[in-house]
What we know:
InterPro entries: 7TM_GPCR_serpentine_rcpt_Sru. The protein is 62% helix and 4% strand.
Amino acid sequence: MSIPPDTIHFNQSYLNYHYEWNGFPTILAFVPWIYMLPTLVVTFKITAIYFSTDWDTVEPGKNQHVFLVISLVQISCFLFFLFNYLLVRLPATGLFTSYCAGISPNSWLLVISFLASYTNYLAMVYPFFMPVVRLMILMHPKNHNRINSIMMMITVPFGLIYPICFTFFLFPAIGTCKQLEYPYPFGSIWIYYSGPAFGLRNTPFFLANLSFWLGCSIIANILLFIKIAHAREQLFTQQTSGISYKAQVSITYTTIAMIVFYVTNGLTLLSYYLFYGSHSIMAYTMLARPFGNDAQACLVSWIFYRTHPVFKKNTDTGLMFERRVATA
Length: 328
């Protein structure tokens, strides 16, 4: 098969490459595990609450669909981190440079590129449904469970199918290894693709989707906060337990944190699109982009875990509901 241009395959310089300490690329591959491993444990605890709770029993501070959405968001974020790590951070160390140079472009490399893109879209889609679920709770307090159950039956498969609409052009492509451009040193590579359908690229689709879902999330959150302000007297009466109030505050912080992902990812992606490969100082945002991607996984998990009363061992469970008040 012909070798795509601008790749390292069977290039003698890369075939002879031997790993040596290459500075910041190796550091950037090591540092994320310091915070991602503890975050993975927290994500597991959040998801375990969803699967271990008897949702037919009313408990202060717990809502089935809120926990489902947060679990979906965090699982998709971690998967995106993992495949993006295999796409850029790990190859950039140079550990596999000689190996990649000695093999032909192949479909296995494409699988990594495809899954990195696919999970990125999952991480964009699911956060939007957090404020939507809470809006349903406030707007339909008597039958929000039925409405949200129907919505989740549509949302979960929608999230799984939606990314295909923006990754379909990768199906006829082939995975390749390429040298990372400035400011990465020689031998730092990443996994890319060649021969996509219609010559399409990922970046414009990413930017368009980030803008769209950011706009939708901001609108949904504005409507939610307006609704909360109007319903405050009904929500925060003496009949609402302290646990429920703390849960509502926790979920509000968590919802806001989800927006951070769109902003940080969007800014770094735009800068990468405009300046990558140039010797502009803005090219260094290529280094910061993965950490912007990590922000949602870490911020959302830890804010929710540290503020939600369900995770506090010393929660005052003596306060009782005098009436059922849904956690919005």
